[in-house]
Amino acid sequence: MLVNGLGSTTLMELYSFQYDVMRLLELEGLSIKFCKVGNLMTSCDMSGISLTLCSVKDPRWLDYLNAPTGAFTW
């Protein structure tokens, strides 16, 4: 699960949204194995949140998502 702030949404709002989404998904019997919250893809002074969900069928993808990186941000 990726919770992305569009630019002017506060981290507190992003984490509150993430908490609510995780609870709703648990009610549906879904479990989250990876979660990233932050301003990952922004737009100048834009308010809002984007949510990305991905079904992981191969556990190696979790290793890839958690692998160290030299990228500027993640």
From TrEMBL:
Spell out the PROSITE patterns in the cross-references.
Answer: DHAK (PS51481)
Q: Do you know which InterPro entries this protein is assigned to?
A: DhaK_dom, Dihydroxyacetone_Kinase
One GO cellular component, as annotated: cytosol
Q: Which domain of life is it from?
A: Bacteria
Task: Report domain DhaK positions.
Answer: 1-74
Q: Name one GO biological process term.
A: glycerol catabolic process
Q: Keywords in alphabetical order, please.
A: Kinase, Transferase
Q: Which GO terms describe its molecular function?
A: glycerone kinase activity
Query: What protein name does the entry list?
Result: Dihydroxyacetone kinase family protein
Native source species? Lactococcus lactis subsp. lactis
